[in-house]
Amino acid sequence: QEQAVESGGGLVQPGGSLRLSCVGSQKIWAITDMGWYRQRPGAQREFIASISPRGATTYADDVKGRFTLSKDNAATKTWYLQMDSLKPEDTAVYYCKIATWGQDYWGQGTQVTVSS
User: Fold this and answer.
1) How confident is the model at residue 84 (pLDDT cuts 50, 70, 90)?
2) CA separation (Å) from 3 to 61, 65, 66?
3) Half-sphere exposure of 8 (CA within 13 A, CB side)
4) Hey, which residues does 81 pair with through a beta bridge?
5) How far is residue 101's CA from residue 29's CA, in Å, rounded to a whole number?
6) Does the chain have fewer CB atoms within 10 Å around its N or its C terminus?
């Protein structure tokens, strides 16, 4: 079954760090893009970052310089979102999306809570 699975969320204090992972199943192919999105309480899902197959990254303005999206070169279909200098307003459910020529695969989401 084709799917994307996120992990790594949790509770962290302001200024802390977390690393989220997204793993795509081996049946997913023809990947065109991989991205992270988040949905804050009471808000719509919003774009955070994306990476092309060649490694070109794009970030939303409010996470630029704090979040880093990378691909695991040793493991296929595995990506990481390193989140540093976290703020309370980063609290949200974080989703990864693997885009292919055929369809998009969304993960189930992982909760990130930034609070003291």
Assistant:
1) very high
2) 28, 29, 28
3) 19
4) 20, 69
5) 9
6) N
Give the type of residue at 102.
G
If you search the block for the tokens 């970052």, which residue do you land on? 49
Residues 78, 6: Cα–Cα separation, whole Å: 10
Range 4-7, long-range pairs (CB < 8 A, 24+ positions): 4/28, 4/96, 4/97, 4/98, 4/105, 4/106, 4/107, 5/107, 5/108, 6/94, 6/95, 6/96, 6/107, 6/108, 6/109, 6/110, 7/110
Please name every residue paired with 53 in a beta bridge, in sequence order, or none if there are none: none
Is residue 99 within 8 Å of 35, Cβ to Cβ?
Answer: yes
Total residue length of the chain: 116
Q: What is the pLDDT of residues 23-65, one digit of tens each?
A: 999 888 888 999 999 999 999 999 999 999 899 999 999 999 9
Average confidence (pLDDT) over 5-15: 97
